[in-house]
Amino acid sequence: MIILKSDREIQAMREAGRLTALAHQEVAKAIAPGVTTAELDHIVDTFIRKMGGTPSFKGYMGYPASICASVNDVVVHGIPSPQRSLAEGDIISLDIGAFYGGFHGDAARTWPVGQVSEEARRLLEVTEESLARGIAAARGGGHLSDIGHAVQTYVESHGFSVVRDYVGHGIGTKMHEDPQIPNFGPSGQGPQLRPGMVLAIEPMVNAGGYPVKTLGDGWTVITMDGSLSAHFEHTVALTEQGPQILTLP
Amino acid sequence: MANLLLLPGALVTSRAGRDLGTLYVVLEALGPDRVAVADGKTRRAAKPKVKNVRHLALVAGPSTDLVKKLENRQALTDEDLRSIIQGYQL
Description:
heterodimer; A: alpha+beta; Creatine Amidinohydrolase; 5-stranded antiparallel β-sheet; 4-stranded antiparallel β-sheet; 4 helices; 27% strand; globular; B: alpha+beta; SH3 type barrels; 30% strand
């Protein structure tokens, strides 16, 4: 069941979204060769708690950290580790969730570490733009699959692929609410989009093929062919005025 | 944090509980966290098991034939389920 949010609830979600965005800003300053993903996790955990929030991911279904730190061929849910140092030329996807005022904010962004390859640079640009196109398609009166269709069309026109096995989701007092939001498929399908819906839209884009697999830790998802993967996400409220991004600083 | 998409017809394996390692087919989503699964043998389609999606790992997405069948609102039979699982084990 899709839970519609009132204007007041959306306003409260904007605060949770703002904290999530500020945490991204804070951790972005530390991204550099030599930094470990565990250090990035510590920065975010400390920051969110200092601001009066709680990291949404820690303990969620047993997830052991406050952020997902997914490097290079890791698609999503990379577990931070003191053994995983960033190197020049890496790309790292940071996914952060903050619980504040009774609601969750959820946002992800992939960053280059120093100078990256031309392919990596293009992958990041295309994935970020695909998110923008997905958000633009999230308009009242349309259908849920319009979002995924916009993402897939743009991504594939640039020679990359969209991950199928993992999807965006509704968000509110729970981090994962209905509906599921695939980043692929034909337009005009699924539930009608309505003001009051709040959606975490999150294209995951691979430089190679779309198949992925999960490692033995039960969380880390990697590309099957070892190609690079990027991930951008915003929490978005559908309003009478159109889609509004809540995860902005 | 991205959610695992478990489409009806997807082949999954249990990664927690007493049925660890058992192959199932997803029959339907029961919410963002739970799905109904069956294998057509120990768990029949008529009485599926409810599993938390975090306790499942995707093994294979639904085949094109299966997607067509589901689009036509045809229910999956125990024979369908056994055939999907056997096809993977071969």
